[in-house]
Amino acid sequence: MPTFDLIVIGAGPGGYVCAIRAAQLGLKVACVEGRDTLGGTCLNVGCIPSKALLHATHSLHEAHQNFAKMGLDAGHVAVNWDRMQAYKAEVIGQNTKGIEFLFKKNKVTWLKGWASIPAPGKVQVGDEVHEARAIVIATGSEPSSLPGVPVDEKVIVTSTGALALPAIPKSMVVIGAGVIGLEMGSVYARLGAQVTVVEYLDAITPGMDAEIAKAFQKILQKQGLKFVLGAAVQGAEATGSGATVRYTLRKDGSAHEIAADVVLVATGRRPYTAGLGLEALGVEMLPRGQIRTDDHFRTSLPGLYAIGDAIVGPMLAHKAEDEGVAVAEIIAGKHGHVNYGVIPGVVYTTPEVASVGATEEQLKEQGRAYKVGKFSFMGNGRAKAVFQGDGMVKMLADKATDRILGCHIIGPGAGDLIHEVCVAMEFGASAEDLARTCHAHPTYSEAVREAALACGDGAIHA
Ligand SMILES: Cc1cc2nc3c(=O)[nH]c(=O)nc-3n(C[C@H](O)[C@H](O)[C@H](O)COP(=O)(O)OP(=O)(O)OC[C@H]3O[C@@H](n4cnc5c(N)ncnc54)[C@H](O)[C@@H]3O)c2cc1C
Q1: Using an 8 Å Cβ cutoff, are 11 and 39 in contact?
Q2: Quick one: which of 408, 413, 412, 416 has its CA closest to 451?
Q3: 421 close to 457: Cβ distance less than 8 angstroms
Q4: Integer CA distances (angstroms), 85 to 52, 64, 79, 82, 202, in order
Q5: Could you point out which of 67, 252, 302, 315 has its C-alpha 20 to 30 Å from the C-alpha of 98?
Q6: Contact (CB, 8 A) for 420 and 445
């Protein structure tokens, strides 16, 4: 059987990036994937299809809400759901084919099938057993549900089912106000569904800077989403025409029910490691199902590494990709490293929400002296021109040194704007460094500069 320097199991953003980088560094590499297409959750049922639907429905929203204001008479813009689904499939196809092309270009062997590890240094795919000096597990994650909420992917669905509903529902209950729930909830709200989000905590998007989360909730409410916060879901049942969700309010224990055509369970994801044979190998796992790794991505078994959603850390494609590059470099004898302090997070709703570094709550908890610079998009000419003055940039900097500690943006293009702050943080920049950098006018990025200015002598347009 062929022998490889490295076999990567799983071709999601962690695995395929790891395989490509390792091949570029001169290793003989194979990547095993059980799905029919490459790209993992991200390209097939995650980031990419959800962004396609967000783009299509955002365009619909623009047509309905803003075209007439700009003197554009498009008549009645109607939705062809089958065509929208076909567009989504085309976007997925272009992206997954793109990874196939990159594998060929970089001479990465694609082993098709589900892998197991029968012994250290060996990977079985079907009847074939391959040998490798190093193995990287990048098997990702799968949606998790709640007790008493049986997913059938028809009326009680996970994000996978929600991306491919046969018809647009008239009503939807989303369980969980995290990123995936709010993105998919926005898609269906824009398509005309009455969307109610039921969340256990008293705020949406747990972990987000509280001021930004509050502003975000208000904006989503204006867009028609309803929220039931502080609600513990007790169960859900499919009925003839849809499903019913039962919950109790945490503040008074009162019991309630809500019915909808479709219920989306968006309560998180769990690591997927089934079928690999890790238990028989004695590989150490963490209580929440992740593979335990050290800071060089080594598992407890020599020669076996793990990255991405299968290990601890934020379940994000770019976190998995960065770990893929780092572990490839380590296996090739270099010094791979991921700076977990500067991993941005983005919600791709309209407006987008993006953050990096510490939240104000975290700085308070750490007892760190900090200053806050805020700037509203109402003061940004470009944002106002596109009806997106709602939102702000909030920058947090060390009180004594002015070093940037975090930044939280809700507004147009936030998911792209955040990266100038990421670069600044990687270079240990101060808010003044950013404030003194010339920013083109008129751009949304001027709002980031103004927030940096607000950490010092003050913003100009506030
Ligand atoms: C609806 C949705 C939207 C999302 N949006 C975003 C977003 O906008 N931005 C973002 O950063 N993240 C987003 N995510 C999260 C992102 O998709 C994941 O964090 C990312 O895909 C994790 O990458 P990974 O390589 O670790 O695993 P995955 O992408 O899950 O890939 C793992 C691959 O391994 C394969 N595999 C598993 N076991 C085996 C085996 N034994 N043999 C062979 N193959 C195997 C699986 O088939 C899969 O293809 C989203 C997720 C969802 C569900």
Answers
A1: yes
A2: 408
A3: no
A4: 9, 20, 11, 5, 34
A5: 315
A6: yes
Cα(123)–Cα(283) distance, rounded to whole angstroms? 15
Q: Which two tokens stand for residue 215?
A: 């502003």
Taking residues 254-260, report their average pLDDT: 98
Q: Name which residue sits closest to atom 20 of ligand 1, judged by CA.
A: 317
Q: For 145-182, give one letter per residue: b (16+ CB within 10 A) or e.
A: bbeebebeeebbbbbbbbbebeebbebbbbbbbbbbbb
Total residue length of the chain: 462
Q: How confident is the prediction for the chain on average, in pLDDT?
A: 97
| Predicted local confidence at residue 145, as pLDDT | 86
Is the predicted pLDDT of residue 23 greater than 70, yes or no?
Answer: yes
Contacts of 448 (CB under 8 A, 6+ apart): 375, 393, 395, 407, 409, 417, 420, 421, 434, 439
- For Cα atoms 341, 344, 350, give the angle at the middle one, nearest 5 degrees: 155
Span 162-174, mean pLDDT?
Answer: 98
Q: Residue 1's pLDDT band (boundaries 50, 70, 90)?
A: low
Q: Which of 14, 48, 99, 103 is nearest to 318 (CA)?
A: 14
Residue nearest to atom 49 of ligand 1 (CA): 40
**Alpha-carbon dihedral sign for residues 38, 166, 268, 219:** positive
How far apart (Å, rounded) are the C-alpha atoms in residues 49 and 90?
A: 10
Instruction: Provide the pLDDT for residue 240.
Output: 86
Identify the burial level of 285 via C-beta atoms within 10 angstroms of its C-beta, where 0-12 means exposed, 13-18 middle and 19 or more buried.
middle
d(CA 165, CA 428): 46
pLDDT score, position 99: 98
Query: How far is residue 234's CA from residue 79's CA, in Å, rounded to a whole number?
Result: 35
Question: pLDDT tens digit string along 189-222?
Answer: 999 999 999 999 999 999 999 999 999 999 999 9
Ligand 1 site residues (CB inside 6 A) read 9-15, 32-35, 40-42, 46-47, 50, 114-115, 138-141, 159, 180, 272, 275-276, 308-309, 315-318, 320, 348
Which atom of ligand 1 sits closest to the CA of residue 16? 25
Say what the pLDDT of residue 394 is.
98
Structure tokens at 125: 């795919």
Cα R_g (the chain), whole angstroms: 23
- Whole-angstrom distance, CA of residue 137 vs CA of residue 120: 13
Q: Tokens in use for 39?
A: 């790209």
The residue written with tokens 């095993």 in the block is 32
